[in-house]
Amino acid sequence: xxxxxxxxxxxxxxxxxxxxxxKGKENEFELEIIPNKDRYEFQVSKGIAGYFxxxxxxxxxxNVLLTSFSQLAGLHINLPPQRIENFEEYCVERYKxxxxxxxxxxxNKTLKSPKNLVFLSxxxxxxxxxxxxxxxxxxxxxxxxxxxxxxxxxxxxxxxxIKYVGDGLIGFFSSPNVMGKVDSSLECSVSIKxxxxxxxxxxxxxxDIPPLTxxxxxxxxxxxxxxxxxxxxxxxxxxxxxxxxxxCAGENQIxxxxxxxQLAHTYWREKLEKFDFEKEKKSSxxxxxxxxxxxx
Length: 296
Description:
The protein is an alpha+beta fold.
């Protein structure tokens, strides 16, 4: 069986813990900690004693374990206490209440009237590669800077941010009317593009951080603004489609769905052209035609 050497990275090690009462001391125990034999096999490799992990196929030197024990001092050795004592009883009780979600009381308390909203979804391109190449603190601050600045621009064009999704966000425009909302989302997107390319990346260059690239998707449709646990959120088919459109865009591209394209002002229609995106993504967009905005 092949064996990998243990490297310096986070690795789980499971033990069997046997409490033993301390003689002459009430309510005091000594803990006998034994590597779980179901997972580990004691071995001597290259003259070094240790344990072979049958799951991860690595050899963990015994001295590594001994060093680790000193780092565990004062830490909890058990899972956090469960608030649900009997899960079967919990399920039975919750089942009795599920019908309440379809009551008029729940609808009136949770759902506001559906609105025709225009959504703008944006994220950072190749963020996984950036996170590998940058220190975690630098990468985190860079992403936060991007998200905060984008939110300010969206708000500046009369929109609001409703969701943060990983290294991106989703904003929406709710006034004055659906045609004006589409125009606002396009104007906002062009402004985001200019700010990121001409200003944000210019700043990143001065501190030796690689430039950011992004992708934007725009779509509109009827959606519900809801209140869950005193937090506002949005649900609707159009929101899901917007995010999928964004995923079809290339670096620094702005892509819009055909339904929204039809409501754009002539100024924008002249800059929009059909966009041929990857074939494997077409099925998830239900044959929606996409248009990319030429704004260079």
